[in-house]
Amino acid sequence: MAAAAAALLLAALAGSASAAAALVAVGAGLRGPSGVRATVYATGVPHVSAIAFDGRGRLWVTTSAATDHDDDGLYVIAHVGAKPVRVAHLTEPLGLVWSGGTLFVAARGKVVAFTHLVGDRFRKRSVILAGPDPKAANDTILALPNGRLMMSVSATCDDCRQSSRYSAAIVTFDRDGGRVRVYARGLRDAYGLALVPGSSTLLASINQRDDLGARTPGDWLAVVRQGENWGYPACYGQGGSACRGVPSPLAVLDVHAGAGGVAILGSSAIVTEWATGKVLRVPLDGSSHRASVFLTGFKNPLAATVFGGGLLVGDWTTGRIYAIAG
């Protein structure tokens, strides 16, 4: 059943229109391409920032407010429609990933490992990595095929040079927090990360500077390779000497979009836009990688992940998690 739903969703993706005006009502208050069906997977997790399934099919969720982080935390949702259960308090958790029976959570100034899960409680919680820059936000965290972890680390300000080589960067490190290495740098905020299945291709959503006025370009979806420097803060895609040697993005998103989570669905990248309330699709095959609107009707979509039947999207403002299938 899940395979059939996924196939229908992929077919809808392949035939989706490039303009929001072509979208139709698909359920749960959302609009999308014909052939897509949207339902509410769960409610009651305001400020949902990241989502990930464990090996038993339970959904784990982090929540992070904009300024007041007293109610931030880690939750588990046992199944569709289940009430979220609060598991732990964390400050500004923006990423989580399961790897080898351990849940790794990227929070403000640290990465926390949760182990020895019994029921919906962990018997052990430890900080495996302090920083790497305590002034920056730790965003998406991934488990790599080589056993290491990868994480995006934001810049500490809108348009200034960084005092730490680990901020405005993507870093990798061992599961115990050791051997921190810079994978790529000069990225103001590569909030969303995703590996294309079956390859080493890394996709990142990159948020642009906010101080540029009419010169502000759209946010980016990019293929980021090891050793690259994306030029922040001097280069923002304007060309010239400031951008000499800086890679080009795969696709340009909306201006001040608040580019968020990235998920790979078939031969497309799905990117949430927190500030516009839209979810975009970027084809990864063919010669054109132009972004088009895939879903609308959210308040502030941020988290995204794939599952057996399709796509999950977490709406930060409403606390709803939507399931998108064919």
Written description of the protein model:
4% of the residues lie in helices and 45% in strands. It is built from 1 helix and 26 strands. The protein has one helix at 2-14, and strands at 24-27, 30-32, 37-42, 48-53, 59-63, 73-77, 85-88, 95-99, 102-107, 110-118, 121-130, 138-143, 149-153, 169-173, 181-185, 192-195, 202-206, 218-223, 251-255, 259-265, 268-273, 278-283, 292-295, 301-307, 310-315, 320-325. It has a 4-stranded antiparallel beta sheet with strand order 3-26-25-24. The longest helix is centred in the first third of the chain and has 13 residues, at 2-14. The model has no long low-confidence stretch (mean pLDDT 94).
Oligomer: single chain
Number of domains: 1
Radius of gyration: 19 Å
Please state how the strands of the largest beta sheet are arranged side by side: 3-26-25-24
Quickly name the level 1 CATH class: Mainly Beta
CATH superfamily: TolB, C-terminal domain
Q: Mean pLDDT, nearest integer? A: 94
What's the structural blueprint in terms of helices and strands?
Elements: H1 2-14, E1 24-27, E2 30-32, E3 37-42, E4 48-53, E5 59-63, E6 73-77, E7 85-88, E8 95-99, E9 102-107, E10 110-118, E11 121-130, E12 138-143, E13 149-153, E14 169-173, E15 181-185, E16 192-195, E17 202-206, E18 218-223, E19 251-255, E20 259-265, E21 268-273, E22 278-283, E23 292-295, E24 301-307, E25 310-315, E26 320-325
Brief synopsis:
With 326 residues, the chain is mostly beta strands. It has a single domain, classed as TolB, C-terminal domain (Neuraminidase, 6 Propeller).
